[in-house]
Amino acid sequence: MIKINETKNEIKLIGVKDNSKNKLIKDKAGQITLISEDKTIYLVLKKDEETFIEQINSAIKAAISTIEFDLNIDIDSIHSVCQGVEKEEIIKNVYETIAFETHKGLSIAKKEKEINYNLIFKGDFKELIANLEIVCEYINYARDLQDTPPNIGTSEYYAEKLVSDAKDIKGLKVTVLGKKEAKNLKMGLFLGVNAGSAHEPRVVVIEYCSDDSKPKTGLVGKGICFDSGGYNLKSSNYMEGMKFDMSGAAIVLSATMALAKAGAKANIVAVGMFTDNKIGQNATLPDSVIESMTGKKVLIFDTDAEGRLVLADGISYVVKEKQVDQIIDASTLTGTVLFALGHNATGAFSHSNEMIEKLNKASEKSGERFWRLPIFKEHLKQVKKDAAPLADLTNACRVRYEDCSYAAAFLNEFAENKPFLHLDIAGTADKENKGQGVLVKTLFEMLK
């Protein structure tokens, strides 16, 4: 549990710049040393290859994993050593690290004794702490959605859970669209992905408008509860972790719930497109041509490129039915973004320099990293060329490389010339088979 400015704990963690106070202190940047006689953990902070924030985060993680006592963390002592770093940034990173590392989530491990972490500092940071409490709650909420086993985490399950969990948050309007409604809206691409499933599709729509003078933002999340690849079946090594293919939906809906709970000034329609992608007697076949919600015909070259199909109808829904002014999608979309950026950054794609600038400003505060990747004219030309003469677009091109950019070009065709930002989180959504709740912080910063 995280507490603020209480003084009940015997052991404290302080920041120092060297080992001059005690030669037993490990004089290495980012290292912690417990001196039992002092009842003090010393954290050495100095200019190094790692930034001060990276050193602090490493040290807090080490303390959580090794120290089994309630702990006072002296933020002011840490701040006094970290020249050029604002106290607010230190509080934020310490709080977020503790909240993330101590979250037990869906673990069935025996419950351990709860450790109290008491942050001590001078100054008025009430608003910061209030926002941190909410954002960290919904980062962890998104992580729990991500970590849900796929035999439990079906489209129906997520819809029921989100409706139940959102009902007590003031200012939210929650709507669930089923198969009948999707048919009425002519969401042919979404239904085409669902065709082989034993579970009915669900579109979870969460609306939050506390200030209608702000541009209405459509957040669209890929919610593939499990991705087998369909008839373009994945090999076994690529099947691992496919329960995380619904991460985009978990993230955009969690971020919207956080904004509402914080009472942020915002105008948002968040949509989670939930289905699985499986093989069945009615499953969509490769080389099929399916009509989208907008009437565009799409050649299904690869049934394993299903994410862009559900997103396309989700984007069309927020544009046509909700009249949004701008769109952001989040999705574990392509392996090529993972090859390009690894697990170090989320791929960002947009023709709008303004949206990229807003993203960059938000990321400076959230600490989450993004890297802009291109949508060239050549990408759209290829998406159209490989569909001809049977369709307007193809969901996957016949060329080997740049699939992340072809996917972005495909999705951009459904944004109806509105500002559109595509965030490919294939490399950042999960790590070591655990959901990371990535983007919740950044979307909160962008839209609050």
Automatic annotation (TrEMBL):
GO biological process per UniProt: proteolysis
Matches recorded under InterPro entries: Leucine_aapep/pepB (IPR011356), Peptidase_M17_C (IPR000819)
Domain (Cytosol aminopeptidase): residue spans on this chain: 140-443
GO CC annotation: cytoplasm
Keyword vocabulary terms for this entry: Aminopeptidase, Hydrolase, Protease
Keyword Aminoacyl-tRNA synthetase belongs to the record: no
Homology family: Belongs to the peptidase M17 family.
Protein name per its UniProtKB record: Probable cytosol aminopeptidase
Organism: Mesoplasma melaleucae
Source species taxonomy: Bacteria, Bacillati, Mycoplasmatota, Mollicutes, Entomoplasmatales
